[in-house]
Design a protein that fits this description.
single chain; about 50% helix; Phage_phiTE_015-like
Length: about 90
């Protein structure tokens, strides 16, 4: 079972809805099945624009030492996290 479905079942089951499934894998209760379809579609529609990449193909950039690579990686992760939060999505710390 994928992470999204586990999250869905945790939320829906926690609200008292039955998450029992048929042999084919769909939910026994039609409303729960419709909620699952809406949940899945809403997750599929999420698109996050990440910060623009810097053009480092120029000869103007010297090759950095390894410390700079780590700093750059961490800065990139931080910028991505900020873009994700700005889209209203929680980032796991």
């Amino acid at each position: 079972m994928d992470v999204s479905r586990k999250q869905f079942e945790s939320v829906i089951g926690g609200k008292g809805w039955s998450i029992q499934k048929t042999d084919s894998g769909s939910y026994v209760h039609e409303r729960v099945h419709l909620m699952w379809m809406a949940w899945r579609e809403s997750r599929a529609a999420i698109e996050i624009e990440l910060p623009a990449k810097n053009d480092i193909s120029s000869d103007d950039y010297p090759i950095p030492d390894l410390v700079d690579w780590d700093d750059g990686r961490n800065a990139g992760i931080q910028e991505c996290a900020e873009a994700i939060r700005a889209a209203g999505i929680k980032v796991k710390e």
